[in-house]
Amino acid sequence: MTFPRFLKDPLLLGSGRRLLELWKPLLLWHGIVGLLFFLLLTPLGSWILGFELFRGGAPVIANIDLLSWVLSWRGFLHLCLLLGIGLLGSVVRFSGIFLLLSHLEHQTPFSLPLILRRVLRLLPRLFRLCIAASLTGLLWLTVMGSGIFLIYRSLLGEFDINFYLSQQPREVYQAAGWLFAWFLLCLLPTLWLLGRILIVLPATLAGDYQMLPAVRKAWALPKKRSIRLLRLLATLILSVYLLRLFASSTHLLLARWALHTTARIFTSVRPLLAVSGFLILIGLLFTFLIGFVTFNLASILVIRFYYEETPLHKNAPPGADLSTLGRNLRHLLLRGLRPRVLLPLLVGFTAVSLGISLYALSRLPEMKEVYISAHRAGPPPAPENTLAALDTAIAAGADFTEIDLQLTSDGRVVVVHDADLMRVANSPLVVTRSPYAAMQNLIQVPNDGSPPSRRRVATLEEFLDEAAGRIRLMIELKYYGFDPDLAVAVMEILDRHPTRGQHVLMSLDLPAVRQLRELAPDLPVGYLLSIGVGDPHQVPADFLAVSRQAVTPALLRRAARQDREVHVWTVNRKQHMIELISMGVDGLITDNPALAVQVRDELRTMTPVERLLLRWIALALPEAAAEESD
User: Fold this and answer.
1) What is the pTM of this model?
2) For the chain, which residues make up each domain, given as ranges?
3) Pairing between strand 565-569 and 472-477?
4) Class of domain 371-624 (CATH, top level)
């Protein structure tokens, strides 16, 4: 079947015609469901998932503890409920669409309140279906994760994972090939299974079958029909992806042209603010429309397939062709372009965009003092966590240099990130199982031209002496299996040094944070958060160090109310630096401290409005695309 002919499939055309006919009630239905979830189910779900029962009384389960927690009954139950509640929103929306189409096909009177009452009565059944789907998905992830773990342990388990990621030896490509093959081996049967049982939901909603009988009936359908449905859905997904790509490119070009043109015409920043609000609203509208059309068209497609292509329910609706679809679309566009319809829409759209702009202006925080920390002692090309890197961090004007500490087998505290020295010094020595004498003469790579003595594996004492009066240390205690002796050894060294009060401590391990809090109640102690479940604000820490993806306005507001700083890692792109500083973070941990210092100092000279505009303008400048990625 050729691609153009495939686009003329009457099932796809009929679904498009139905969408054009029913877009008003469908839009209203999506609004009702969204409002109900916002007011009722979202708080209820947050309350249920917030039970400390799932975390065993711990305020947060994060970082290296997360995997073991997920594999426990508490974590599995938490994930199952989380996925079930997440799926419930989409299933409820689908249910309303199904009931709406069913009333039309049976030519019975309907109203949205009637459909809402029927969906509410179906909620227990829908939730059970969502939980069953969640369990199936988690079992699939367990199987897939087990295969990934075996491939990793077989091919990449000898040295620290950072060695394989940076050096990319032959084993990395072998693992990538095996992972790709395993992914296909898991994905293809999953898609096949999904295509065979997609009609379980409409069959269950129609009341024709219970869930298990519906699964058996769906599996008994001819394979060709399931393949047809999968092809239609694949075409729809590909079309949506291309449409989103086109819409994003058009929006970016429009933003560049509008902002540059406005800047040339007006000297005041207020017109730029209005244009920014207008562009933001257009972007939100594009995103909503694409999502609305995709979800509804896919839902109608599955429902029509259930009615037309399966013997489960014989009541086929009338077909459609391209001319019918074109007439409906043209009629809708012409009706929307009438002056009495278009002018109020433009006025309302402009008013909303101005409202968004003024609201954003009123919510802009004043710029606070932002600390710049050099990641792993200093920027490349100096070898990480070396005295050479420390020199480059000082030269760049960083406020802190962030270093990683581990304990050798003979009790020396050394500045090393990985579990072994393979990546940084081409040595298989494991730090915690080796004496310091075996590693102190190793010269780390790359060679940045600094003396070899500045590229050796350094101790904490050497860093304290070199940093004294020049830069502060952000000290991370690094564990590959928690060892309480590390914090004790670190504090013994700090207590002997005159610069003790100038430095801060942090760790990924919650037990280490608690231990540091007891050993050094007068020093700032931070909790380093990569990914987690729970409330990190309950951790007894003075500051949070979070990944860039985890930063939200809500997190920053909560931290500000608790007088707790938020430092973000690892931020290397200029646009991300602008965005995070404008949001109100307290510090950036970066591989490019010179750029971060420059961005921070320039932002200090700007007004809040100019900082907001800069976040938008940076997206529209050609230079943004040429910057290095993280």
Assistant:
1) 0.81
2) 3-362, 371-624
3) unpaired
4) alpha beta
